[in-house]
């Protein structure tokens, strides 16, 4: 890690000159104020301890959430402790997973990012939850009561998965009470030219898609809002919002073979304006089992072909269906279906 101290700048020089002039023209009480100001100089140790505490704070919010405690208060305390919303005119905060509202320059918008709130894209970063935050500073620049760090931190998820790598830039200053505060926080996922898909992602995606179909049927059977369940399913798995075109040929579609819109896909899954649609997902089914003939991956695109088996809730034999799927990753790195072609086997 590089440490750089005492970097001169026009602003720093001007500030120093103003201080010297003030000292030369001051009364006997003014040097005391300048001496007090010198105690606000930031040290590298303070920066490192502050980073460690920030990470522990993120972990703590998740722990409180998991235990059913008042995680909103935990998040509020975290923001007030580490960010300068109360002390500074402006806090520049670009969270890792923010796109619709990229910059969070108010306490409320930061709160929404950490635990979810009024901003629809916010799922609650701090309540993921995480079990550890590890910092790797590329460098620390200190100039009086201001400091800047850049590097990579690693968030270990509570489900035991691999640490998530995030690039950061932070700027800190001390307030009038000598407390370190964040005035700039910019986080981004590492650059990826292709957002390459892995086979593991494809297999997990298929499993989740099948579970989603079963879930829609369960909601329908229990008298719940199965249309909302189907809407969530389509938005999660299909690229209608992200891609120019989704090619979807459902198994039991003939009058309207191809479903290139969200509405026509919803009709197929739960019934709707298309007369032939009886609601495939509300049959209902209790299980979907996949048998891939193969998985082909090229960068951020993947294709699978095979047979899946839908087990009906009435206890009948699994229904055999042949499929071809194509997937791609959107700009947020989410896997989406861009082609889905299903057919009953020849002779049926």
Automatic annotation (TrEMBL):
Record-linked PROSITE patterns: PROKAR_LIPOPROTEIN
Signal peptide bounds: 1-24
Keyword field: Signal
The organism's place on the tree of life at top rank: Bacteria
Gene3D superfamilies the UniProt entry points to: 3.10.450.50
Residues in coiled coil: none
The protein's name: DUF4440 domain-containing protein
